[in-house]
Every structure is written in structure tokens, then in C-alpha cells.
Amino acid sequence: xxxxxxxxxxxxxxxxxxxxxxxxxxxxxxxxxxxxxxxxxxxxxxxxxxxxxxxxxxxxxxxxxxxxxxxxxxxxxxxxxxxxxxxxxxxxxxxxxxxxxxxxxxxxxxxxxxxxxxxxxxxxxxxxxxxxxxxxxxxxxxxxxxxxxxxxxxxxxxxxxxxxxxxxxxxxxxxxxxxxxxxxxxxxxxxxxxxxxxxxxxxx
Length: 204
Ligand SMILES: [Zn+2]
Known about the structure:
Strand content: 5-15%
Largest sheet: 2 strands, antiparallel
Order of helices and strands: HHEEEEHHEHEH
Shape: flat
Helix content: 10-25%
Bound molecules: zinc ion
Number of strands: 6
């Protein structure tokens, strides 16, 4: 995840369009990018085209919500990713035997896709709800779980103190991060010293 510095925050749809693209590239203008997107960033045909695709939930709908609706301009979604521009321009591409149009393109950044030649899904997440959710995970406590291990539950008296243990579960990246003393967050409270005059006292 990239968090942009002040002055570079994504606040307009024009800025979103500069970073994220969601249409099949022009084959004549950008043949290499066209090939990369064809290879890596077209959602596998699902729904009516293939009911058995891995993304199908209960054989009814795609869990990734493909195919998307056509959209003439990028719109900021209501507590969701932006609805990226993918126009009905008649361009389609044959992927695994099915003709797929702009509605099946996984959002990408042209520079990153062309540079790394692999599947890179780029999304803009700048709504207030998204940011609150992300920072909640930075500041909240470690994950905990209560559990008991009993060979035969019926024969044992339930002693809450001995039966339950509060344990802390951490994955390898967290000890590594702490061992190397990396910052846990890079946000600091803004503190101003106020110039107050109190008789016979210095600045507070
Ligand atoms: Zn799908």
C-alpha cells in the first residue's frame, strides 16, 4: 500500500484517471501494454460465460462483481473504490475462447504493468471510511483468543482459570519489524507551544 505525501493526495477523478486505468489499451498505440493487459489483467470469464469459474459464489454471481457496468467517466464511489472509467467503445479481446470487453478489465497502472509484466491490480482507496479502517489495525491491540484443550470434556471440572488461556498470536513479520526497531506508525500529534504570559513564570 502506498500512502501519498501531502500535496499528492488523490482528490479528483482526473487524478484517479492518471494513475489507474480500467480499459483495454489501444493495440496500435501501445502494443506491448495491450499484450500485458491481455495476458495478466483480464478477469477470467465467469457468470453466464462460465458458471464454474473459481470466482463464482453459489453458481450465481461473481465474488469480484465482474463484469462491471459500463462507466463513461470515473466516479468516486459511496464508501467503496472509485467506479473507474470503462467505456463501451466496441473494443474487445479474445481471452481463453471468450470475447471480453472493458467491463472485464482488472484496474491497473499502465507504468507498473508495462514495467513488471505481471498481474498488478491497482486500486485507489481514499475514502474516509477506508482510511479509518486501515489505521484501526495499526493502533488496536494484538489479536487474542481464548481456548481450552481437553482430552475428555465430560470428566473434567470446569475451572475457568486453568481451562482458559489468553494467548497472543503474532505472525513472523511483526517480530521482524520490532527486532529491527522500525516505526509502527509515522503519524505524530501536532503540538504547538503557546506563548502565555504568567507573572513570574517562564513560557509554558
Ligand atoms: Zn468473476
